[in-house]
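Same chain as my last thread, 274 residues:
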Amino acid sequence: MKGVSDAVVQIVRDRDEDRCARCTEPIRGERGRDWSVHHRRPRGSGGTSLRWVNQPANLVLLCGSGVTGCHGWVEKNRDEARELGFLVRLNGTEPASHVPIDHGLHGRVVLDDYGQKHGTGGGLVSLTIPQRVLERVFDRIEVLDDGCWQSTYSVGSHGYAQLGWWEDGRARMTTAHRVAWTAVYGPIEGDLTVDHMCKHKRCVNPEHLRLLPAWENARRGNRDWPLGVCANGHDNEHMRDTGRGFRNCSVCVLEWKRDWNARRRAKRAKAKAA
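reply #2:
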């Protein structure tokens, strides 16, 4: 099985707000050396055929490598890490999506494969943004010629402007566009995330923002097309869950396979005729 896809990594980074899931410090530097996408249920030395292992519910951001930082702590203190949910037993029967984790940002939650956090008693868990933070989100903006309100707050490694605050003795942080949406339209409910229609990551103009399901936002990246269809115009009724933390269009997949098979037959025929 292949490793974690870029789309899944982005879902995990958005959910964990580019911070270590244990100590909540911002992740910086080089992935694999300064921070890691940690598998709660290890892949094992020979890999694994379990599809959920490379899905968001089984992944968290940790500072450090396997021998440094919080990632190193997890590897050195495996029993305690299991109690806290940072490790899931290799020979266990439950997938990570059923095992609670003491997440540094979100508390005791159950993670799912769409970037959401659920309380152990059920129901989605979202970060509560204090009123004092909502009131200052538009204090530092630069209005651009295209109508974007470019936030001048600090920018994370993901390219988004971000706002931080202290709460209960712990540092909290989220992206500026999420704060802007909440300040104008209210809390973000359900399996939804804020998308930039303008594709400018630092923009906080409410008119340039919209709510999309996490999977819909993740598949668009820097592109855009009408809602309700895939990038090639096929209706969303053809969307299928890949089991790897994102969805794809079954019609597009079928067309791609047909084209690939046609190219392969043509290549074989050319080789045979040579």
